[in-house]
Amino acid sequence: MKNYQLILIILLLLTGILSCKKDETEKVPEYPVQYVYSYETESVVKVFAKNGEITSNEEVINRFKSYLAEKKESSEYKGITVTYISADTIQLQIDETPEEKIRTVHRYNGVTYWESQDTTKFPILNSSFVKSSLFKYSPIYYVEYNLPWTTGFRKSVHFKQCYYAVENNEKLIIPFIDFAGYTIENGAFVGTGFNNTFDENSILNFGLNDTVVIREYAVELEKIN
């Protein structure tokens, strides 16, 4: 019996020692971790109507493509630097100017959200591109409040602005879209430089004459430490 107890104690001690060695060899992330601008990808232009992407009507495709100015590489993106202070916080720098406050990091369905601490508020008439059906991603915190008709506006939008990115090994991929067109929800519009991705499911809400041209591209950041 004593021999059995001695063997059991030795086994427990060996298990503890091996566990400690395993913990010591596990790689623990070291912060800060910094990502800097690497390059801007080539843009892809597509035209969508209610029945899906238009691929065969060259006249319609070229007409809507002309609504968007020729895409040139944007120098403003070259000043983007993202520094992870921890797994859940970052310091964002755009145009070589660091933001005063850190942002919180959230991850949903393979997408990383860099959320501002501040709440932005502004009135809207009918709809807002902050949370448009055209966009695949929208702020985590977003609330609309009704306003009295005497204000001349329909609602007041309160939200915490987010940047969206996809983590890919040692890189961060930040998607952007430009678009122009006409839809029931937004009327006639043109928008450029939105950090987002087009939601193709939005065409389910298109009217028969609704059409939109989308230009998608991305900025890649590479890890330097």
Written overview of the protein:
- This protein has 225 residues and is mainly β.
- It has one domain (28-224).
- Helix content is 14%, strand content 43%.
- It has helices spanning 2-25, 58-65; strands spanning 33-40, 44-49, 52-53, 81-86, 89-94, 97-98, 103-108, 111-115, 120-124, 142-146, 155-159, 162-168, 171-183, 187-194, 211-223.
- The chain has an eight-stranded antiparallel β-barrel. Strands 9-11-10 form a three-stranded antiparallel beta sheet, with no helix packed on it.
- β12 and β13 form a beta hairpin.
- The chain is globular and about 55 Å long.
- Residues 6-14 have low confidence and may be disordered.
Secondary structure category: mainly beta
Helical residues, percent: 10-25%
As residue ranges, the low-confidence spans are 6-14
Beta-strand percent range:
35-45%
Total domain units: 1
The DSSP helix count reads 2
The largest beta-sheet arranges its strands as 1-4-5-7-8-12-13-15
Mean pLDDT: 84
Radius of gyration: 25 Å
Give descriptors for this structure.
single chain; 225 residues; mainly beta; 8-stranded antiparallel beta barrel; 3-stranded antiparallel β-sheet; 2 helices; globular
Compact description:
With 225 residues, this protein is mainly β. It has helices at 2-25, 58-65, and strands spanning 33-40, 44-49, 52-53, 81-86, 89-94, 97-98, 103-108, 111-115, 120-124, 142-146, 155-159, 162-168, 171-183, 187-194, 211-223.
